[in-house]
Amino acid sequence: xxxxxxxxxxxxxxxxxxxxxxxxxxxxxxxxxxxxxxxxxxxxxxxxxxxxxxxxxxxxxxxxxxxxxxxxxxxxxxxxxxxxxxxxxxxxxxxxxxxxxxxxxxxxxxxxxxxxxxxxxxxxxxxxxxxxxxxxxxxxxxxxxxxxxxxxxxxxxxxxxxxxxxxxxxxxxxxxxxxxxxxxxxxxxxxxxxxxxxxxxxxxxxxxxxxxxxxxxxxxxxxxxxxxxxxxxxxxxxxxxxxxxxxxxxxxxxxxxxxxxxxxxxxxxxxxxxxxxxxxxxxxxxxxxxx
Length: 291
Known about the structure:
Blueprint: H1 4-18, E1 23-28, H2 41-48, E2 57-59, E3 62-66, E4 72-76, E5 81-86, E6 96-102, E7 108-113, E8 119-123, H3 147-156, H4 161-165, H5 176-186, H6 199-218, E9 260-264, E10 267-271
Antiparallel strand pairs: 1-6, 2-3, 3-4, 4-8, 5-7, 6-7, 9-10
């Protein structure tokens, strides 16, 4: 699933193409991506037509498109959602779901989603912040992100640090990839209990998350296949620089120890058993305590 750097890469790519542009026509090619629009696909087409885009915005993994009238279109990319900007006469990709013709007739915004876990919906009055995502926490790149406060709340949780980093109500935008990368950089085991983190460790892992995501942003996000692309169709390539995620059995780039992977719920964590030691008495992946 796209995480903050991937969504921000898409947002930044769309901003100069959409800001100030009016929607001249909308066509829903498959109803599932607009399933949350209660009045159905045809009404979705009609209520968006004629609106003017302002600069796209993002919180964590969520993207929204403010309109000049104060409403917004909220978007979630799910597992495989993409936005592409093409000429209206360009061939459609196989999994193109929704088309937005832009004023002038020279460009068309296309929502493409192979697995269709993503979606689009109108958010009345949502230009500043859609009510549907008001519960999502600020991310480390937000100007109002309070590092000390989030670190303190992180330490107050009764869970493990990897699970806490994935909690979008605590800090948004971090998914499995960047959580593994941040913990490797901070040299903290993914199952380290949050209540046992020192203040310096809590601050350090949040700073590490921002660092690895900033590096990914500089390279266009992380891409392992064709399901994540920029708006011009180019792939991100941060996977070439990953230090932890996906490196099970490979030598740790810091100490040479083979990297390990452990399962928890429906996810996994990859870490260095030497650099990221779990203190004696910490929990195992099944929730029991180590001796």
